[in-house]
Structure formats: C-alpha cells, structure tokens
Specification:
single chain, mainly alpha, 2 domains, 5 helices, elongated
Length: 153
C-alpha cells in the first residue's frame, strides 16, 4: 500500500465522508501560510538591504537620503547601523579637525630659514663645519700627492 493510499485511509477514518473537504481546507491553509512566509521573507530581505544601503552612505551628504524608507523596512539592526555610521562621520570630522590643528602647529614651530639669531647661528656652524671638512680633505689629498711624488707637502 502506498503512502498516499494510507493517508487517504487515515483521513477517511478520522473525518469520514468529509475527508476530502478537510484535505482541501488543510491544503488551502498551507498555501496561505506559505504566501505569508514568502512575504515576511521579502520584508526581511529588504530590511537587510536597507542596512547595507545605510552603512555605505557614510557622509553627511548621503546619509539623510539613504535613511528615507518605509517604516516596515526599519529594524533594530538598522538603528544600530545608523548609530555606527553617525559615529564614523563624527570621528572622521574630529580627525580632520585635529589634522588641521596639527598642521597649524607644525607650521608655527618649523625653523624659519635665515630667520632669527638661532637659525643664522646653526647655518653658520654648518657652513664652518663644511669648510673644515673640505680643508681637512684637501690637506690629506696634498699629503697623499706628496707621498706619491716622494716628498713632503
């Protein structure tokens, strides 16, 4: 005996002559539940897509438009994503402000070439050291040349 005939026998035993009517009603109920489940799945899919759209709209210019949507697509996860995007925007602004301030400080404290006594003294010391190094190298070259020629320089 096949499974289908067993099911038919069980249905007839339980419901008598109304077995076919009950089976049809059961089938219709399952079809409705399946349609509802598909609708719920589509809403959840769109909720997930909304999280992705909001996550990639991470500038002040783009985040407002990306957050405009039907209320049924909003979720707790979307609120979490929005909060993190807002935090990223705020941190990026703080970073930019600090970078500008740092650049200003670096410019203000850079040694000015030829400006101020300290800069001139350092430049003079560097030039003096270079002259002494050149003189020393010249002296060594003369000694080497004299040695090659066989005399003293």
């Amino acid at each position: 005996m096949s499974d289908t005939s067993k099911n038919n026998e069980v249905m007839k035993y339980c419901f008598g002559d109304d077995a076919e009517f009950v089976a049809v009603k059961h089938y219709e109920r399952l079809q409705r539940e399946l349609a509802e489940a598909r609708e719920q799945l589509e809403v959840e899919r769109l909720r997930l897509a909304a999280c992705g759209v909001v996550a990639t709209a991470d500038t002040k210019e783009t985040c407002g438009r990306a957050r405009e949507m039907r209320s049924e697509y909003r979720s707790g996860s979307l609120v979490d994503v929005e909060r993190r995007v807002d935090e990223c925007i705020q941190l990026r602004e703080q970073r930019d402000t600090l970078a500008e301030a740092l650049q200003g400080l670096l410019k203000a404290h850079q040694p000015r070439p030829f400006g101020g006594i300290v800069d001139k003294k350092e430049r003079l010391n560097a030039e003096t050291n270079q002259i002494f190094e050149t003189l020393e190298a010249t002296h060594k070259a003369r000694q080497a040349l004299a040695t090659v020629k066989g005399g003293e320089a």
